[in-house]
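Attaching the record inline, Q. Sequence:
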Amino acid sequence: MPSLVARWALRYRERGWSVIPLRPRDKRPLLRWEAFQHRRPEPEEIRAWFATRPDANLGVVTGTISGLVVLDVDPARGGNESLAALEARFGPLPPTLVVETGGGGRHLYFHHPGGLPCAVGIRPGLDLRGEGGYVVAPPSIHPNGRPYRFLPGREGELPEPAPLPGWLALPLDESAHRRGHSVAWWRALLREGLVEGERNTRLASLAGLLLHHGLEPGVVEELLQGFNLGRCRPPLPPEEVHAVVASICRTRERAARRAALARAATAEPARPSVASPGTDV
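Structure, as predicted:
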């Protein structure tokens, strides 16, 4: 009979989610997981993974492949306060699938709107896991020995994730977002590099920073390809880096279009001027 973690992995797979095995009591993958951002593992693969490592943790790949985006709320970094402030401004989040993490935080699952990348530090203690990311899922065990579990504890039920609220899908306050990490933090990232489990997310953040400061997308990709080869352990495939930059570019373009439409909708209609010449001049 399959192990508990294998049964949950197969259940997630039946819901259309892409899953990956993680190291026991750890967040790091047991294998090269990038392919499962583009295809779901077959049930036979899942059974084989967890037959070999029945003590493994379980990850769910976020993004289009699973139709999921997850809001990661970390109370230790002020996530509860940040989320409360956002809900006071924009309204409460809709009821949705919630996981209590082994570390005491929460993962709020939403339907992925398409094209949304991971975003680190949208507010203190709040991260979004979208394209290029994954989350640790029940029944995984945290390094402290505590399990990941669904809230409010109804293990037999998995309600459908709610649609992602629009105010979480866009940059909420660009100036505050830019202040999310200090110069020292960025210097440490560039100096120390990235390991499995954080490469896509951090590269997406770095791409967004460079694009915000006016670098052309081609230049940003060239810089990140070099950083990936020299500082990522192990390096991502070049096509993964290209996909990260392309996704961030698309997200910025959509945000710019929506902002322009919002400005146009609130602008007072222009009145014709009697001094203006006609079109036939």
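Residues 238-266 form the longest helix (29 residues). The chain has a mean pLDDT of 84.

More tomorrow.
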